[in-house]
Amino acid sequence: MSPASAIHNLGVVGGGQMGQGIAQVAAQAGLAVTLVDVSPELAAAAVAKLGKTLDRLVTKGKLAADERDATMARLRAGTGHADLGDCDLVIEAAPEKEALKLELMASLGKHTRPSCILASNTSSISITKLCAASGRPEQVIGMHFMNPVPLMKLVELVRGLPTSDATYQTTQALAQRLGKSTIAARDIPGFIVNRVLIPLLNEACYGLYEGLGSAADIDTGVRLGLNHPMGPLELADLIGLDTVLAIAQVLHQELGDDKYRPCPLLRQHVAAGWLGRKVGRGFYSYDDKGQKIEKVG
Ligand code: NAD
Fold it and tell me: Which atom of ligand 1 is least distant from the CA of 123?
C-alpha cells in the first residue's frame, strides 16, 4: 500500500480561509473530510460557505454540477474533536497562536486513534513544540499550504525533531495526491516561505508608515517594478493582518533580531480590527465578495 492510499478520512480543525481551502481540495480529491471549528455552528457555517464557493465554480463553468455534489457529499461538519476518531490524518488550521495550537495538539492526541498523523498548517510556530504537546511526537508534522489553497501549488513540509520518516512520506504523498508540489523546510521560525515573505510585507508596512508612497503606489511599485503578481500590502490583506503580525512576532521573538520588528502601523491595524480582506477592511476596503472597493491606507 502506498503511503497516500493509507489516508481515507481527513480531519480539518479550523474552518477559516485556510481550513475551507484544505477541506475543498481534499474532498475534491476523493477524501472523506470532517471539519470542526470552535462550535458546531461555526463548522456548519464553514461547510455552507464552501458549498457557495463550489456553486460559484459551477456557475463559472469551472466545475461540473455532479462533481460539486460528489464533493459536498464527502464533506461533513463535526461537532468537536470526538468526531475525528476515525481520521487517518488531521490538519489543524486554527489561528496562529502558540498556546492554542499546543492545546489543540494535546486534545487531538487524546481524541484521534493512535495511528493518526497530526499535521499543522502553522506559518511559523515550532513543529517540535507541537510534537511534544501531542503525546505522539513521531506522527506530528508541519503541512503548510499557501493561500488560496485551491490555486497555489506549494505545500511546505516541516519536520519537527522527532517526526518520523514514515510520517513525512505519508504526508508528502498526500500533498501530491492533492495536486501539490512539496518542499522540505527545517523547523526554524518562518520555515522557508515566511522567512522570505514576512520581512517583505513588514517592510512595505514601514514604507506606508514612513510615507514613502500610498498603499497603491507601494503595491504598484512591487507588482510592475519587481514583477510580483500581487503587491505586498494587498497580499498582507489577503493573508490576514492578524496572521501577518503573529508570524512577524514569532520571527522577532524567536530569532531575536530587530530586523524582524513588526511595524507599528501593522500593530495598529490589528488593534483596530482591520484584519484585511476577511473582515472587509485592512490596507484597502473590500465588498462582501472580497473585491477591493477603495484605498483607505
Ligand atoms: P482564519 O482567521 O481565516 O480562520 C481561523 C479559523 O479557526 C476560524 O474559523 C476560527 O473560528 C477557527 N478557530 C479558532 N479557534 C479554534 C479552535 N480552538 N478550534 C478550532 N477552530 C478554531 O485564519 P486562516 O487564515 O485560515 O489561518 C489559519 C492557520 O493557517 C494559521 O496558523 C495561519 O498562520 C495559517 N496560514 C495562513 C495563511 C493565510 O494566507 N491566511 C497561509 C498559510 C498558512
Answer: 34
CB of 243 sitting under 6 A from ligand 1: yes
Ligand 1 pocket mutation, candidates 12, 13, 18, 279, criterion most atoms within 8 A of CB: 18
| Domain-embedded: residue 297 | no
**How confident is the model over 194-205, as a mean pLDDT?**
98
pLDDT-derived band of residue 296, with 50, 70 and 90 as boundaries? Answer: low
CATH number at residue 280: 1.10.1040.10
Specify the DSSP element, H or E, that contains 198: helix 193-209
pLDDT digits (tens, 9 = 90+) for 101-131: 999 999 999 999 999 999 999 999 999 999 9
Whether 77 and 216 share a structural domain: no
190 is a domain residue: no
Residues 6+ apart with CB under 8 A from 90: 10, 11, 12, 13, 84, 108, 112, 116, 117, 118, 119
Both 91 and 159 in one domain: the answer is yes
Ligand 1 atom at minimum distance from 239 CA? 40
Q: Looking at the predicted structure, is the pLDDT value of residue 67 above 50?
A: yes
Residue nearest to atom 8 of ligand 1 (CA): 16
Range of the domain at 165: 4-185
User: Which grid cell is 116?
Assistant: 493518526
Share of the chain above pLDDT 90, in %: 95
3-state helix, strand, coil in the chain (%, to 5): 50, 15, 30
Give the end of a domain, one of 161, 185, 209. Answer: 185
* The overall pTM is greater than 0.90: yes
**Residue of 90, 107, 156, 243 to mutate, ligand 1, most atoms within 8 A of C-beta:** 243
Q: Return the SS3 of 157.
A: strand
| Total domains present in the chain | 2
Is 156 catalytic? The answer is: yes
Which atom of ligand 1 lies at the shortest distance from residue 36's CA?
20
Average the pLDDT over 48-64 and give the result.
97
For residue 18, pLDDT over 90 is answered with yes
Question: Contact at 8 Å (CB) between 236 and 269?
Answer: no
